[in-house]
Amino acid sequence: MSIQQPIPEATPATTVVVRTARNRSGIFGGRPMWLIWPSIVLLVVIIGIPLLIAIYISFLNLDQYTLRSWISAPWVGLSNYITALTAGNVIGASALTSLGVSLAFSLLTTLFITPIGILAALTVNTTYGGRTLVRSLYLIPYVIPTFVTALVWRQMFLNGTGLVDRFLAAIHVANINTYWLLGPNSFWAMVIADTWASWAFIYIMVLAGLQSISHEVYEAADIDGANAWQKLTRVVLPQLRHILGLALLLSTLYHFNNFTLPFVMFGTPPPLQADVLPLNIYVSSFQLFNFGLGAAMSVITLIIMLIPGFVYLRALRLGEVTAS
Amino acid sequence: MKGNIRYVSYWLSLLLLLSLVLAACGGAGSTSSQGQTLHVLIGYNSTYPAQQKQWMQQIAGEFQKATGSSIAWDTFSSSSEEQTKLQTSVVSGSGPDVFSFGTTFVPTAQATKGFTTLTDQDWQLVGGKDRFFKQQLTMAGSSPNQLISVPWVMRPFAMVYNKELFQKAGLTAPPTTWTEFVQDAQKMTNPSAGVYGTEIDPSDSFDPWKIWWMFAGQLGGSFISQDLKTAQMNTPEAVQAARFWFDWATTYKIVNPNSMAWKAGDATQAFANGKVGMLIMTTPTLKPTLQKSSVADKYAFAPMPTIPYGMQQRPANGVPDATIVSGDMLAVADYSNVKNLAFKFINLVTDEQHQIQWTKTFGDLPVNVQAANSLASQDPQTAAFIKAEAGASPTPFTGVWGPLEVALAGVSSKLANEVATNRYDPSHIKPLLDQANQQIQGQLH
Lengths: 324, 445
Fold this sequence. Notes:
The complex is a heterodimer of chains A (324) and B (445).
Chain A: H1 12-24, H2 37-57, H3 79-86, H4 95-123, H5 131-143, H6 146-157, H7 163-170, H8 185-211, H9 215-223, H10 228-256, H11 260-266, H12 277-287, H13 291-316
Helix pairs in contact in A: 3-13, 4-8, 4-10, 4-12, 5-8, 6-11, 8-10, 10-13, 12-13
Chain B: H1 2-25, E1 37-43, H2 49-67, E2 70-76, H3 79-92, E3 98-102, H4 106-111, H5 120-125, H6 134-137, E4 149-154, E5 158-162, H7 163-168, H8 178-188, E6 196-198, H9 207-219, H10 236-250, H11 264-272, E7 276-282, H12 287-291, E8 299-302, E9 327-332, H13 339-349, H14 352-362, E10 365-366, H15 369-378, H16 380-390, H17 401-420, H18 429-441
């Protein structure tokens, strides 16, 4: 390598200009984007590669016999997907039924926790004595580990001896021996337990959103003669649209993927009405040793979960410049 | 030129990061300066956690003195965790050197081909085949010269009954036939006091198959054919087995109607509270729990009945299996590079002295023949258990046995669901068993 031209030491300014011009024309505008490489590497190794492996496994017949040399397990094409979508399952519900249960569970839970969360946030939005204590109390259900919540609710829902049945019998609403952990009630037991544990998430998000609403907006509404309900529906909620939308999306996705609560509350195999998709996948893969089927169900779940995410991103038009 | 350097440094930093990450993810095969490390995975003992910790320290110390190498312990607290660890190790080719698992899981473990088959030399290293209880060796591998595991402890199944409730009902001895069992239970049942003759735990993950296996075996049936090629989970014997168990709740009414959601722990708790007359499918390791409960010193163990309901004797091909070959086995992973150390470890924990110590501390019975004989001569209860295990029947040695247990638990759970919601009918049993049969047949090679 040889540089024949004379080094322009008499004109350092020119060199600086050349360097800056080259940077400005770079795609990242001169920002040190190489700092992102560690995150990208970790994402690829921890999420990207396992995802590709899972998709590959979904086309294989992978069981305890072929597990050790899984790369050369027999290829069965779409057979696992067809089984997932059509066959019944002696362990629990078929994959389609599980999907229905999961969707109903996540949508209903989100539906219940939204008004509770919004109301709770409104109660601590104005300053009063003891507000800090109330705020802390609201967070308690959310910070308790899920398996502890599930265990305690399981004890409460046991028929005959659990608190729920004893209470309902005491107020003469239901028989003391009502089954909550089996049968149709098991679905509602799961919804109740998860509603109790997760309303604080909506509360936190809404509270954050409320902080960004300035006083002037409220004052303007007062001047226009709005009452409390009108202020809530015409002023506050529209301002919260974006953050509430995000909270609802995250909440739905979280509840759809919630494995710990039904696993600890019902164990395996779970009752049909509470056989959510993550639990179904776990039993199929790890207990029945049918990893191919479990992988196929996981891929189906992923595709379904991408839909609301995609819709949300399009609705918010994220990434595009929006006028504030 | 500067652009070149920046370009090169980007890729160098990326490569460096990638290699660091992959090195961190790589398996650990550490070697200490004095010797090597043996990784051992055993079940966590929730009844005796402090004693288990002590035992692990003591064994590690003795092992260090004998071989100059150390032991790195790992525990699992549920069979789900054990299975996951096993699956991960088999796929990744790294993990514990020595695994402990239950006898009925050995066939599935062998199917993964992840464990060493012991050669004659290996058997010498672990103390010789003659050292071990013969029945346990029947579950150590698919055939006598394809053994992948070594027996560690025995846990025969039996029935425990409440002596006080027996006395109140005027019963003098535990039942030996299932007809007597139902009659005795009916005599002890007193719904107004919340006391029931026996219990049922259909929502448990592992009890249902064991109980149905016992019933079906006594009727002359089996869940897998002799040649291990055909699933037989929907034969008349299997259907009758499931039906008889649920009859306890629906026909004879000798169990708590709320027990459809029960798991094994709930049933044990009911017995410990004095609400159950007879608790079946338990092991002597229940003793410490019972001694701390309200039925302390008021219980006794007995083998389970062996003659089917309504019959005077077993059918021609019925087996008097009062218990399955049950206990824990130790196996050495094929990927292990300290196999000789592993066999030395197994030798250490299965010699007479250590086996007697284990029984006295944790309650499981010894697999070491000399230890078993010595304990039997001291205590008649132990002698009875050892006798029961000598007559134990091995479960079919097939890789689908693990999934089969889960499939039957699924059938049991669905039937329990029906009983709980008043939609049960005995005619529903066969279609569910047909479905389970089809699913397991699909896995049989």
